[in-house]
C-alpha cells in the first residue's frame, strides 16, 4: 500500500518535473529543487531500516566475551560439569587463542593411559564451531579446513568444554575456583549417577551411563556411545563420592 502511494505521488507530479540540461536556466532548475524540498505528508510514515541483519544480543563475537554461563548454554549441563571436572583436575594442558581460533590439548581422564586429545574451536558468525580428536569426524574436518558448527550433527565433548573453561579461567588459579559436586545424569535413563556407584564412561567424550543405560545401548546400538557414536570406548568405573 505504501509503495502504491509513493508511485501515485510521482505519477501526479511528473508533469511538474523538468530534467535539467546543460543550458537549463536557473528558474527551470528551481522547479526541480522546489519539488524535492516539498514536505510530503504521505512519506512521513515510511520507516527505513538497514539492509544488514540486526545482530542478536545472545551471540558473542570475540573469545574475550566467553563466560562460564555461555559455555554451559552451548554444550549442555552434563558436558559442562564434566569439562569443569576435567579442568579442575589439571587435564587441560593447552588453551591458546589466535584471533578467533582457540587451540587446546587435554590429557585423557582414563587411568593408566597417556593419550591426549587435540582440538580446535572458533567463533563463526557468533556461533561455536570446532572439532576434537575424540570425534570420528576429526580427520575429515581437519582435511576440509572448515570447522563445523557444534550441534546435533557435530556434537561437542567434555574436552571442548574443558578447554573453553580453561581459557576463561586462565587468570584464575585452579585452587581458587569454586568446586561444586558434579551432578552427572545418565542420558539414556535420566538417572542421577550417585557417588560410590558403578558407572560406564566413554573414554573418548566422557559421557557417563548408568548400568541400565549401558545395557540398553548394548542391546539397541551395539554398545556405541550415544554422544560421540564411537564403538568400544565405554569402560566401567566407580564414581567417586
Tell me what the structure shows.
- This protein is α+β, with helices and mostly antiparallel strands.
- It is built from 7 helices and 7 strands.
- It has a 4-stranded antiparallel beta sheet with strand order 1-2-3-4. Strands 6-5-7 form a 3-stranded antiparallel beta sheet.
- A hairpin with a 5-residue loop joins strand 5 and strand 6.
- Helix 3 packs across helix 4 and helix 4 packs across helix 6.
- The longest helix is centred in the first third of the chain and has 12 residues.
- The radius of gyration is 30 Å and the shape is globular.
- 27% of the residues are buried.
- About 16% of the residues have low confidence.
State which percent range the strand residues make up.
15-25%
What structural class do helix, strand and pairing data support? alpha+beta
Strands of the widest sheet, in order across it, are 1-2-3-4
Radius of gyration: 30 Å
Q: What's the end-to-end separation, in Å? A: 69 Å
What would the average pLDDT be, to the nearest integer? 74
Overall geometry: globular
Identify low-pLDDT runs.
12-22, 35-57, 178-182
Q: What is the H-and-E element order?
A: HHHHEEEEHHEEHE
Which sheet architecture does the biggest sheet show?
Answer: 4 strands, antiparallel
What share of residues is helical?
25-40%
Question: How many beta strands in the DSSP annotation?
Answer: 7
Q: Give the count of helical stretches.
A: 7
Amino acid at each position: 500500500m505504501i509503495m502504491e502511494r509513493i508511485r501515485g505521488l510521482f505519477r501526479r507530479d511528473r508533469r511538474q518535473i523538468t530534467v535539467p540540461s546543460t543550458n537549463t536556466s536557473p528558474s527551470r532548475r528551481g522547479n526541480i529543487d522546489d519539488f524535492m524540498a516539498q514536505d510530503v505528508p504521505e512519506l512521513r510514515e515510511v520507516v527505513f531500516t538497514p539492509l544488514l541483519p540486526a545482530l542478536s544480543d545472545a551471540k558473542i563475537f570475540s573469545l574475550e566475551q566467553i563466560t562460564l554461563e555461555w559455555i554451559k548454554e552451548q554444550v549442555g549441563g552434563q558436558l559442562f560439569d564434566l569439562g569443569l571436572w576435567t579442568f579442575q583436575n589439571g587435564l587441560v594442558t593447552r588453551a591458546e587463542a589466535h584471533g578467533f581460533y582457540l587451540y587446546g590439548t587435554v590429557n585423557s581422564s582414563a587411568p593408566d593411559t597417556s593419550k591426549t586429545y587435540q582440538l580446535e574451536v572458533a567463533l563463526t558468525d557468533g556461533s561455536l564451531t570446532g572439532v576434537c580428536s575424540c570425534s570420528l569426524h576429526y580427520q575429515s574436518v581437519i582435511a576440509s579446513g572448515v570447522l563445523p558448527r557444534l550441534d546435533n550433527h557435530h556434537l561437542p565433548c567434555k574436552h571442548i568444554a574443558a578447554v573453553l573453561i580453561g581459557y576463561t579461567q586462565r587468570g584464575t588459579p585452579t585452587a581458587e575456583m569454586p568446586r561444586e559436586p558434579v551432578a552427572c545424569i545418565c542420558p539414556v535413563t535420566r538417572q542421577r549417577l550417585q557417588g560410590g556407584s558403578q558407572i560406564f564412561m566413554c573414554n573418548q567424550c566422557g559421557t557417563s551411563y548408568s548400568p541400565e543405560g549401558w545395557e540398553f545401548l548394548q542391546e539397541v546400538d551395539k554398545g556405541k556411545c550415544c554422544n560421540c557414536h564411537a564403538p568400544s570406548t565405554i569402560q566401567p568405573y566407580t564414581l567417586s563420592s
